Structure formats: structure tokens, C-alpha cells
Amino acid sequence: MSSPVIVVDRVTKRYSGHTAVRSLSLEVPAGGIFGLLGPNGAGKTTTIRMLLSIITPDEGTVTLFGAQGSGRDLSARIGYLPEERGLYPKMRVLDQLAFLGECKGLSRWDARKRARQWLERLGLGDWTARKVSDLSKGMQQKVQFAGALQHEPELVILDEPFGGLDPVNSQVMRDVVVDVARSGRTVLFSTHIMEHAEKMCDRITIIARGEKVVDGPLAQVKREFGHSSLALTFTRNGAAAKSILADRSLVARVDDSGASAEVELAHGAEPERLLKALVMADVGLSRFEVVEPSLQSIFIAKVGAEAATPAASEVVA
Amino acid sequence: MNKILAVIRREFIERVRTRAFIIGTLIVPLMTFGFAYLPQLLLKRDTRPRSLVLLDGASGSTGDSVESALRRVTLGTGATVRSRYNLVRLRTGAEVDRLRDSLIQRVGVDSLGAPGLDGVLVITDRGVEDGKVSYYGTNVASFSDMRSLERAISPVLRGERLERRGADSDMIAAAAVELDLQTNKVSKGRLTGESGESSFWLAYITSFVMYFSLIMYGIQVMGAVLEEKSNRIVEVLISSITPFQLLMGKVIGVAGAGLLQLAIWGGASFYVTSAIASRNAGGLEQVAVDGTRQSMSLPAVSVDLVVVVLIFFLLGFLLYSALYAAVGAMCSSQQETQQAAQPVTILLALGFIAMFTLINDPSSSMAKILSFIPFFSPLVIPVRYALSPLPMAEVAGAVAATLLGVIVIVWMAGRIYRVGILSYGKKPSFRELWAWVRTT
Fold this sequence. Notes:
Number of strands of chain B: 8
Oligomer: heterodimer
Number of strands of chain A: 13
Distance between the termini of chain B: 23 Å
Helix content of chain A: 25-40%
Largest sheet of chain B: 4 strands, mixed
Low-confidence stretches of chain B: 282-297
Strand order of the largest sheet of chain B: 4-1-5-6
Shape of chain A: elongated
Largest interface: A-B, 33 and 24 residues
Helix content of chain B: 55-70%
Structural class of chain A: alpha/beta
Order of helices and strands of chain B: HHEHEEEHEHEHHEEHHHHHHHHHHH
Strand content of chain A: 25-35%
Strand order of the largest sheet of chain A: 5-6-7-3-8-9
Low-confidence stretches of chain A: 308-317
Radius of gyration of chain B: 31 Å
């Protein structure tokens, strides 16, 4: 299985007066965890909805499993957890899960059996006959998680899967996702929480304003970005340090946290020059380290603060 | 296909399980039972004969006739049948007033463990002439008691008046015959064996049932769509099944639950009314309030009428529930739907109002035009057919026109539904709705 599971080819989706996704291309290889990252309003949910053929792109194509047919035709092989969670509040938990299974093409009997197994696995075995509305919010999230995974799909698509979960439940869900990936299946999830992506993803794509900004295996993204990233900590003379870091011939960008800073060197600048300058300024340097950049800093550098919100004035040409 | 079955089954089972459905399904038969059967039960329990004194101050044979007429009135059915009145007749001559006053003192007063008199009936010569008879009793508030007395005495007094003017018994009998208009429904030059009254009732009941079930189940579909949308469950479903499958599954599921409910209501009503009808036919329930028996008996329903009603019920249901589903899909809250559903509800109500004029003149040109408009034909055709069977060609034409309308409307509603269920926020304008219909 070397052919990609998802191929998105120059896909564009416009809404009235606003382009949600612009000529986006993606490839998600089989196996592993793929992170679709971006600020709010970047087009993550729109992209995911197009993968699932909930909405159709205005331009471009989406190919899943290298096969003909839309995401809906192939839905038996796909598990989906939407960003907006929802269950029938008055339906019993087991009936609810079994129904979701049936919608994925499972037989009624099989769907009930699997639903029961998943509820046991997620510690909801005693709740099968209760109404969904009797469950706590965290429990309802687990039920939905089970709904996305119970038919053992080859491809699992999760839209902001860890939003609104407490740390314990969040960990439970992450373990499940990692399990799924270990069993050789493919997980794609979207998030704007870089910590999660950094810990879990093998590959990432960052999109902003509907366009791809960064793409590739996480390690490679870091390598390409990280050779000029420095972590500094100083103990005195903060003002002097600040003026050195403000030198644009030396430093391209600073993520300043007062006594410490994450620094991106200007193109062609040597780390030594910066070290020399800082020593001369007597800033009480206690840390000077060339580090792999955090995904957080890559994200902020690539997306930029101004892209964090979509431009409302943007109009379709 | 299995997926659409799963949607239908879920919709049906979850709907049938709700308390509202169970209570709603039970309450209608209980009410039918209550309205139709309780008065009968009360009458049946009314087995105590009335103790009556007939104070006869009239001359000639009047007293005899009244007495024998009262003695012929019976109580109870079958083996328990007996006289309704324990009657004592007193001839009084000129002492009517004095005797009457002393008897009144014993009305309703038990003496020595024996129940007292129920009443005193006073007839005088003048009363016979004026058509006035006085009754003094404990039971004057009982509608059925007084009706029973009136019905027994009235023809006797009429006969007496005629006799006093020299009419012989033949003439009296002839004068006593009342008009009973025999209506017979003719359709296409042939007698149908139905009476005019029964086809009116049939049309009337059909129109009510059609209108209320279309509106009731249509609004249920709307609520179900809105529920899925506001619970955000629709997005998971739409990733596995097409919006059209979901829409059709919902509509059919609600229809199934609705038809089950209608069948239970219909069956229970049929059982209750036919049980009463057979009881009435078998027994000698003379005291039944006038007209009860007429309206109770179920009109004879022909098979082709049932087929026509079913076809148009299904067509109408598809059309209106698709419209209501589209309304549910374009709204984001219960309050919004109330306003947005108004055009659909008004459309239905127009058809309903039109039916009342149609019942008077089912073959007017207006009726013919309405029969070919898909929004109205589901209500109009069954009523017209119940009143007098329509030519096959006209029914077929109406079915074709309606079916075409249903296809177009369901298709458009499906497009609106598809976009609407994923759109939150402001309710769309008509222009935006049109854009939704056209988007691919």
C-alpha cells in the first residue's frame, strides 16, 4: 500500500463572497497520522467536508483510496467525527451507535454487536440502555468516537477531535487514535492545538486562508525550518539583549518571553555572531541552544498573526 | 437501500416509542368510546321503572288512549324488557287541581320504605285542545325522560283532537304518517346503494382526516428535520447517506408511524361504532336520543373510494412533508419554523376551505380546476369522489398532474434540504432559496 489514501488536487470551494479553500492540493499516504493544521477559519472543516463529499468542490478533484466514487460511496471504509458533535438526545445509547453503524452499511445484528463492544471498551458498558441525554458531555463524546471507529474503517477523519475534552478523556481518545494508526490504518485529524499535532502526527499540512502554507513529514518540516532557531535565556541587562535581538541583519524574528526568547536568525547569519554580541553586552547568558523549532513557532512564523483570522473583505474574483 | 431502511426503522421506532405517540394513539379511541358509548351505557343502566300517576281530567276515551300509549313504552333490552312506567290512572272529573296538589306532596317522598312517586301527569280537555300537558316530577331535568314522555303522548293527543272533530281512525292513521325523505345516490346512471346522507358524511370525515393528518404529520417531519439539524447529527449521517435518502427515510418513517396511528384510530372507531350499531339493531332501545343512530352508523365505503383516498393521501403526504422538511432544513430554531411554515400551512388550509364549497357542488368548474393543482388535489379529489365517483379519466389525469407536481416539489425540497441542513444562521431569502435549488 504505497499509493496515497487521499489525493486532493487543486480544489477550490467558494461561498457567497468568500473563498473558503483555494486551489488546495494534498496527499495523505497510507498509514500513520496526518495533521491538518490551521487557524480558525482557515478552511480545515471545509476541506474535510469535501473529502467526505458532504459538500462538493467548485473546482478540482478528491480521490480516495485511488478509487472511483465519492467519499459517500466509500463511506464504509471511512470513519468520521465532525467538529460539531451531535447525537439524538432521546435515543438509547446502544440504538444510537447501532444506527450509525447501519448507516455505514453494517448489518443490524453486526452493528449492535460492535456497538456493545465499543461501549465496553470505552467504559460505557453500563450505559447502553440509557438515553443519550442522560450521559455527561464527555461520555457523549466517547459515544461519538465509537461511532466513528466501530466499523473499523481504513481511514479515520477527525475534525478537532480533542476540543472540549478534559485531560483524562483527551488522553483516552489520543490513545485510541494512536492504536488505530499502529494497526496500519490512516488517521487524518484537524486541530489548531499544535501540542497535539506535535506529539502525534507523522505528517502535517498547515493551511491558512484556504491555501497550503507548509506540507510534509513533521521531521522534515522541522528540519527545513529549524537550522536557524535558537533558544536563549539571559539573567540580566534585558534592555541590551532586546536591542541586539532587534538587529534585523542578525535576527529575522523573535518570540520574546522576557527572560528567555526563541530566535530565528536572519538568512545567512551565523549563530556565533549573535553569541559574541550577547556576551559583549553582558546579559548573563545561561542558555544558548540551537533547537528544533516547536510546531507552535513554525505555525506562527508561517501563518503569521494577521492570517489567524480570515479577511472578511475578501471577495471572489 | 439497507441504509434507507435503517433510517426508516429508526424514525418509526423512535417515534412510536415516544410518550406523545402512545398517549395520542390511545386518547382518540378513548374519546370516541366516551362520546359514543357512554351515553348508551348510561341509558342501559337506566333500568328503574318510573312511578307515575296519570291524573285524567279529560272526557271521552282520551285517558284510555294516553294510558295504553304509556304502557306500551318499554325499558331495557332482550330478556330484561319491561314496562317503563308503573302507572296508576285516576279519573278526576272536576277535582283535578285539588287531587293534583295532594299528589304533588307525595312526589319524591319515600314512605314506609317504599319509594315515592316520580311524577304526576295531568291531562285536561283544554290541554288536549291546546296541546298542553302538565307534568310535575323529580326528573324534569332529564332530557331523555321528558323526550320519552313527549314522544309517547304527542301522537295520542293529535289523534284525539282529530277524532273530536269527526275524523275516523283511518284518517287519523293517515295524518300520523311523517315525512321520511329517502335519498339514494346515483352515479353514472346507476344506483350505488348509498344514501345521500352517508356520502356527505363520508366526504366530510374524509376531508377532515386528510387535512389534519397532512398538517399533523407534515409538522412532525419538519420537527424531525430541525431536530437533526440543531443536534448537528446530520453531518455524520450525510457523510454516509445521501441527503435525499435521509429525507425520504424520514418522510416514510413518519408516514409509517402516522398510518399506524390512523389505522388504530380508524379500527377502534369502527369497532366502537359498529358494536353500538349492532346493539341498537338487535335491541329495542326506544329511548335513544333522536338522530344518534343515524350519525353512528358507518356509511358504506366502496373499495375504489378507499383506493382513491389512499393514493391521494400518499401523494399529498409526500408533497407536504417534503415542503415541511425543506422548511425545517432552512430554519435554525423552533420559533423560526413557526413563521417559515406559514406559507405551507396556508396552502393546505386553502385546499381545506375549498373543500367546503366543493361539498355543495362537487362538479363545478372550480372543483375541476382545483383537481389538477397538485397542492389541492390531494384534498379535493377524495371529497369529490366520496360525493359522487368521478370518471376514471379525470382521476387518472389528476393522479398524473399531482404525481408530476410531487416529483418537482420533492426534488426542489430535496435540494433546499441538502443545502439547508448544513447552513446555520440567518434564514435564507427566497432569492437564496432559489440559489440553493440551482446549486449542484
